Amino acid sequence: MKLSCKHKQVEHWVMGFNFIATAAVIAIFVMLYGFDRVVLPPTVLHVAEVVLCFYFFAEKITRFFNAESKRQFLRFNWFEIPLLLVLLLIAGGADRWFPLLDRDVVFLPAVSFYLVLQVLSKVCLGMVQFASTGKNPTLGLIILFIILICAGAGMLMLPKAHNLETMSITDAFFTATSATCVTGLIVVDTGKDFTLMGQTIILILIQLGGLGIVVFGAVLALLLGQALSVKESLAMQDLLSTRTLRNISMMIGFVFLGTVVIEAIGAVSLMPMWDTVPSVLPHPDMKWFYSVFHSVSAFCNAGFSLFNTSLIDYKTSFGVYTVIAPLIILGGLGFGVLYNLTYVAMDRMKRFFRRWFNPASALTMGMPRRISLQTKIVLSASLILIVVGTILLMLFERCPSQTEHCGQFRTALFQSITARTAGFNTVNIGVLSEASKMVMMLLMFIGGSPGSTAGGIKTVTLALIIMVIYATLRKRREVELFKRSVRLVVVGRAITVMMLFAGLLILMTMLLVLSESGRGWSLLDLAFETTSALGTVGLSTGVTPTLTISGKWIIIATMLIGRLGPLTLLVGLTFNLKPASYDYPTELLMVG
């Protein structure tokens, strides 16, 4: 995706000016749309927009003449020429084509639209290049997450983004971290304390944090016809957990297209649900936004809701169980599993139709595609956890109020599904029995599946640890799953993940106990909150809104660690360590 240029120094200067121009565009839009009062006269800001448009035009001319291959430059920037032509036509013919409108009404939105596209393309493509540079791509991913959180917090602090008198830095960072890390814990009411602009910012953070801004950058690069370099493909392979570089473009396309299709179907399916409790919506025209918001939040396993009681008011609506719950499950399975299932299903359909229309070709079709071991483990573990969690919640729950009645099957089923990944709730978590809270903490500790937006130690890790115990009891030399042996290094990684996760859970709980001492919360409630943050779930017994400033920052750090994963952080810190080239003699030890 990198063009060859004649003069490297010129390209470096252009890239530096691009960074300044991109920052200037962002600053202009913040001053135009982020403040209630005028920061600078609008005329000055609009003139600055026009000047920046001329700069981007000059930048393209400079890079065109500096490129070694003019044809390659035009192919990589094919979208720029139509955009510039449309902008020039609007600038020259606005009075002729739109006589009933003011010239600025037509020209200025066109300029703004062009600048937005420029910034989006440069930021997204820059993220892909940044993730692939350097010797430590994992550390680059961590830095990108922190940058996204800081940018989101800054935007949420804008006066037009919230309805509060002032938005504190701590609350802004807490909300931005919770959205970016798709957790769902809140310290301010998302539906009441944030304006439509603020809610849209949270929605964007959920989408970018759930799927990754690097993935969106790669999608944009592929849509613009720009092939990924080897380094960029390797970075995407690490992010998406794909096995070969050959399928990386197909995987990226599947992630993007699958996300759009699933979230769109979810949003359309949610539209009728809001009519069951019409008084809850602030305005009937907001149904579409509420549908999109909750669909994205459910699929990304974020658990953010625009209602202050989550989905309690809709606990009798079938949309919660037929739309929200399936979205949570699909998002928690992971794109690797969804890709494998789709690939196998398409292969089976292709073979079926070929046999039907051309029976003679059945002998030349080769072996059918098989469901991978990863997919089998994920589907089996997810189903078992959902069923066991539902049964335990129904057995242990004794609500004091008949109106809650959380021992019902469908309510217990929904809480068993959402406790591992999302964080929506149809009952008041604070009134649940201690046994039920312990069950939900265990589900949050396990979390979703590898390659998904969910947190926790992951279902595959749990399956491997259980099979390690089983292999030890059966005196088997290797860990076996579905008649397949698992390599020792994978088993070691699973044990490392569980131990790191458990250690961090204990550490963060101790810190939260120290920061919230004397505030009346039990150890179980504080441990529940920490587990929810580390597992990026978002369920709360009511502790989060009452946290002290230090307690909020502890949860912020916990959510970030939980989203990135303790093993990812450890790899990022120890990436440059070389493995030892020698082994010590072995000696037997007694254990147990």
Highlighted features:
two-stranded antiparallel sheet; 2 strands; mainly alpha; 592 residues
Describe this structure in words.
By secondary structure, the chain is mainly alpha-helical. The chain is 65% helix and 1% strand. It is built from 23 helices and two strands. It has helices spanning 8-33, 42-66, 70-76, 80-97, 103-132, 137-156, 169-180, 190-193, 196-211, 213-223, 230-240, 248-270, 287-299, 318-333, 335-357, 373-396, 409-420, 434-446, 459-473, 488-515, 523-534, 549-564, 566-573, and strands at 479-481, 484-486. Strands 1-2 form a two-stranded antiparallel ribbon. α4 packs antiparallel against α5 (103-132) and α19 packs across α20. The longest helix has 30 residues, at 103-132. The termini are far apart.
Task: Please render the helix and strand layout as text.
Blueprint: H1 8-33, H2 42-66, H3 70-76, H4 80-97, H5 103-132, H6 137-156, H7 169-180, H8 190-193, H9 196-211, H10 213-223, H11 230-240, H12 248-270, H13 287-299, H14 318-333, H15 335-357, H16 373-396, H17 409-420, H18 434-446, H19 459-473, E1 479-481, E2 484-486, H20 488-515, H21 523-534, H22 549-564, H23 566-573
Antiparallel strand pairs: 1-2
